[in-house]
Design a protein that fits this description.
elongated, 80 residues, single chain, alpha+beta, two-stranded antiparallel ribbon
Length: 80
C-alpha cells in the first residue's frame, strides 16, 4: 500500500502522476516474488483545479497493488 500527500503545486506539476515506481526500495523483494510486475496506473492532476479552495490544501491519495488478484476477482479486459 502506498500513501502520498503532496502540496497542490507539486501535485499539479504534470498532467498525470504515474504509479508505482518499481525502482523504489519497497519493490526490491516483491519484484522477484511477483515475476517482475509491469502494471501501472495514473492519477489525473487537473481535476477541480478551477474550483475555489481546491488549490489550498495538500492532496492525499492511497493505492494498493495486489499480487494474484485474479484469483479473487475477474481479470482485466482489453489487455493490449
Amino acid at each position: 500500500m502506498n500513501v502520498d500527500k503532496l502540496p497542490p503545486e507539486v501535485f499539479r506539476e504534470k498532467p498525470r502522476l504515474e504509479f508505482p515506481n518499481y525502482d523504489g526500495e519497497e519493490w526490491t523483494a516483491n519484484k522477484m516474488k511477483w515475476d517482475n510486475p509491469r502494471d501501472t496506473f495514473s492519477i489525473p492532476t487537473g481535476m477541480f483545479k478551477d474550483q475555489p479552495n481546491c488549490n489550498e490544501k495538500d492532496v492525499t491519495f492511497i493505492a494498493t497493488i495486489y499480487n494474484e488478484v485474479g484469483l479473487v476477482m475477474p481479470r482485466r479486459r482489453n489487455m493490449a
